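Blinded run. Sample ID left blank on purpose so nobody reads anything into the name before looking at the predicted structure. Input follows.
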Amino acid sequence: MSGVRLLRARDRVARPWKNGGGVTRDVAVFPEGADDGSFLWRASVATIAAAGPFSRFPEIDRALVLLDGELVAKIGDAAHRLRRGSAALLFAGEDRVSAAPVGAACTVLNIMTRRGACSAKLGRWEVARPTAADRLLLLATANAEGAVDGRRFDLSANDALLVDVPEGRSLSLDGPVIAAELFDQFVQ
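Blinded prediction complete.
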């Protein structure tokens, strides 16, 4: 991957969760084409339609951000209620995690990074901010506009923009997004 990529929500392909309990749609995977055992980071939008356990991903750090609906997630014995606008829920891929939608099905942004190889910082942005990240993934939560080095992008809800090496680029943003700042790490 290099440069800037517009990743339309309508182009995502549904696939079953690793444990078969639900459906997810990959937004981006690095390296491109990597499977569940070899990705360094992965971003996906998952639908949680019924109560159940999450798939386990040993040696993976996970961050979950609610996009639509309401969710009660349990990490071990600790319960966390997520509503639209809640901070990211952080947990280790080997943790015992389950979740139940409150009322109707909900959707979540799931960011997974391989421990020791990558890390992620998530936030809600309405305007561009400086970042030293190696890659920046911006997922629109409503209609938004972005520009990178003068190239303009119109984003609908759940569309994403992936920017390689954002530091030093001219980046502007107008509208609500979830920003995933992705940092490379090297195990010595």
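Unblinding after everyone has recorded impressions. The CA atoms of residues 24 and 46 lie 4 Å apart.
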